[in-house]
């Protein structure tokens, strides 16, 4: 739980003789349900971004939670997130390249085997993968039979339901606050948008009121340290870096500094690499081991950033990095520049690592939490 969400105890009140003589009236007491709902939200502020924090019955003299300063800097107050409908509009536009070929299948006049064959081809071209495509077709045929649907346009809605069911296991919130600091290791191949995604994730965390420390452990790529430094300046957060330093040593120093400074989150930017570069993959394992030496419970999250443009290759990356690091979550970027957005279905079917965030643009607000229903509807809109 974030320290700046804790409520300060009220100062003791000494009753005057007049007050003592007056009849006492009991202040309103929050219900058990409201109190538990508030605690649940504070434990996991990412769990339901579409709704605000649960309402809590007001205390006698205060209706808002005080904000305490962090050890070094004042914690920023959480600001309102962009409207979810605005995000849906961006998501629909971003997935248009993938969804247009699938949507055209349902413009016919009847439901027959030809329709299913066209749909199969469209799903495979969207890099949904053979296993996920077969699962979707079988499930769709069952839904059509159960609903006795005769309109091809209605079949598209049933496909959205089937896709939502397939993708739902990937829908999991990123939990911050169970550990202080929460250490997040971020990996990914060069060009996937790893460092940019770290900058966007830092912005998300800051909007939730978390204090963040960045670790520039990507000493393999030229100018990576400088690029992360730019994101640190934009988000007004601290950064630990060493010119030409050992990535594992930088990571160790950052986790140690995060603990000493009372940071909520330490984000470790690791070197981009291909899973075929075995010596570099071993270095990633070393970073993870060293982070554990700095904090016996860390890393608490191991994220992989994948480029949606790479289609089935993204699934191969998930397999390789998961085998090496035991991934806890994914960030999928650049879905607006590809016709291969169906790869999320392939991941759900073959290696269901949770998708924490998806991106459809370069702006800070173009990275949002993944929602299976929203994704399916946007893809088939």
TrEMBL record:
<dbReference type="InterPro" id="IPR036225">
    <property type="entry name" value="SRP/SRP_N"/>
</dbReference>
<dbReference type="GO" id="GO:0003924">
    <property type="term" value="F:GTPase activity"/>
</dbReference>
<dbReference type="InterPro" id="IPR027417">
    <property type="entry name" value="P-loop_NTPase"/>
</dbReference>
<dbReference type="GO" id="GO:0005737">
    <property type="term" value="C:cytoplasm"/>
</dbReference>
<feature type="domain" description="SRP54-type proteins GTP-binding">
    <location>
        <begin position="354"/>
        <end position="367"/>
    </location>
</feature>
<comment type="subunit">
    <text>Part of the signal recognition particle protein translocation system, which is composed of SRP and FtsY. SRP is a ribonucleoprotein composed of Ffh and a 4.5S RNA molecule.</text>
</comment>
<keyword id="KW-0342">GTP-binding</keyword>
<dbReference type="InterPro" id="IPR042101">
    <property type="entry name" value="SRP54_N_sf"/>
</dbReference>
<feature type="region of interest" description="Disordered">
    <location>
        <begin position="1"/>
        <end position="85"/>
    </location>
</feature>
<dbReference type="Pfam" id="PF00448">
    <property type="entry name" value="SRP54"/>
</dbReference>
<dbReference type="GO" id="GO:0005886">
    <property type="term" value="C:plasma membrane"/>
</dbReference>
<keyword id="KW-0675">Receptor</keyword>
<feature type="binding site">
    <location>
        <begin position="333"/>
        <end position="336"/>
    </location>
    <ligand>
        <name>GTP</name>
    </ligand>
</feature>
<dbReference type="InterPro" id="IPR013822">
    <property type="entry name" value="Signal_recog_particl_SRP54_hlx"/>
</dbReference>
<comment type="similarity">
    <text>Belongs to the GTP-binding SRP family. FtsY subfamily.</text>
</comment>
<feature type="binding site">
    <location>
        <begin position="269"/>
        <end position="273"/>
    </location>
    <ligand>
        <name>GTP</name>
    </ligand>
</feature>
<dbReference type="GO" id="GO:0006614">
    <property type="term" value="P:SRP-dependent cotranslational protein targeting to membrane"/>
</dbReference>
<comment type="function">
    <text>Involved in targeting and insertion of nascent membrane proteins into the cytoplasmic membrane. Acts as a receptor for the complex formed by the signal recognition particle (SRP) and the ribosome-nascent chain (RNC). Interaction with SRP-RNC leads to the transfer of the RNC complex to the Sec translocase for insertion into the membrane, the hydrolysis of GTP by both Ffh and FtsY, and the dissociation of the SRP-FtsY complex into the individual components.</text>
</comment>
<keyword id="KW-1003">Cell membrane</keyword>
<dbReference type="InterPro" id="IPR004390">
    <property type="entry name" value="SR_rcpt_FtsY"/>
</dbReference>
<feature type="compositionally biased region" description="Low complexity">
    <location>
        <begin position="50"/>
        <end position="63"/>
    </location>
</feature>
<dbReference type="GO" id="GO:0005047">
    <property type="term" value="F:signal recognition particle binding"/>
</dbReference>
<feature type="binding site">
    <location>
        <begin position="188"/>
        <end position="195"/>
    </location>
    <ligand>
        <name>GTP</name>
    </ligand>
</feature>
<dbReference type="GO" id="GO:0005525">
    <property type="term" value="F:GTP binding"/>
</dbReference>
<protein>
    <recommendedName>
        <fullName>Signal recognition particle receptor FtsY</fullName>
        <ecNumber>3.6.5.4</ecNumber>
    </recommendedName>
</protein>
<dbReference type="Pfam" id="PF02881">
    <property type="entry name" value="SRP54_N"/>
</dbReference>
<keyword id="KW-0378">Hydrolase</keyword>
<keyword id="KW-0547">Nucleotide-binding</keyword>
<dbReference type="InterPro" id="IPR003593">
    <property type="entry name" value="AAA+_ATPase"/>
</dbReference>
<dbReference type="InterPro" id="IPR000897">
    <property type="entry name" value="SRP54_GTPase_dom"/>
</dbReference>
<keyword id="KW-0963">Cytoplasm</keyword>
<keyword id="KW-0472">Membrane</keyword>
């Amino acid at each position: 739980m974030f320290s700046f969400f804790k409520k300060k105890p009220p100062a003791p009140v000494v009753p005057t003789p007049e007050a003592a003589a007056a009849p006492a009236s009991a202040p309103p007491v929050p219900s058990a349900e409201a109190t538990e709902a508030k605690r649940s939200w504070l434990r996991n502020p990412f769990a339901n971004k579409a709704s605000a924090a649960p309402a809590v019955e007001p205390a006698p003299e205060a209706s808002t939670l005080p904000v305490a300063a962090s050890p070094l800097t004042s914690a920023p107050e959480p600001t309102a997130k962009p409207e979810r409908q605005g995000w849906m509009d961006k998501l629909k536009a971003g997935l248009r390249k993938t969804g247009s070929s699938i949507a055209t299948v349902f413009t016919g006049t009847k439901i027959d085997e030809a329709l299913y064959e066209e749909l199969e081809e469209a799903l495979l071209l969207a890099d949904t993968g053979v296993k996920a495509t077969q699962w979707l077709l079988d499930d769709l045929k069952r839904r059509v039979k159960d609903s006795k649907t005769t309109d091809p346009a209605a079949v598209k809605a049933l496909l959205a339901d089937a896709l939502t069911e397939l993708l739902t296991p990937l829908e999991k919130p990123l939990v911050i606050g169970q550990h202080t600091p929460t250490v997040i290791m971020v990996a990914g191949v060069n060009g996937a948008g790893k460092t940019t995604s770290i900058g966007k994730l830092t912005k998300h965390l800051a909007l939730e009121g978390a204090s963040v420390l960045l670790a520039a452990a990507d000493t393999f790529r030229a100018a990576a340290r400088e690029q992360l430094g730019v994101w640190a300046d934009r988000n007004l957060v601290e950064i630990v870096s060493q010119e030409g330093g050992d990535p594992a040593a930088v990571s160790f120093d950052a986790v140690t500094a995060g603990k000493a400074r009372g940071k909520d989150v330490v984000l470790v930017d690791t070197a981009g690499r291909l899973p075929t570069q075995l010596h570099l993959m071993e270095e990633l394992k070393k970073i993870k081991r060293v982070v554990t030496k700095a904090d016996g419970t860390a890393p608490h999250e191991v994220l992989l950033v994948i480029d949606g443009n790479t289609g089935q290759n993204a699934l191969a990356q998930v397999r390789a990095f998961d085998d090496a690091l035991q991934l806890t979550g994914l960030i999928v970027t650049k879905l607006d520049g590809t016709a291969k957005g169906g790869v999320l279905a392939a991941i759900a079917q073959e290696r269901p690592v949770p998708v924490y965030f998806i991106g459809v643009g370069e702006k800070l607000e173009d990275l949002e939490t993944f929602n299976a229903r929203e994704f399916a509807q946007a893809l088939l809109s």
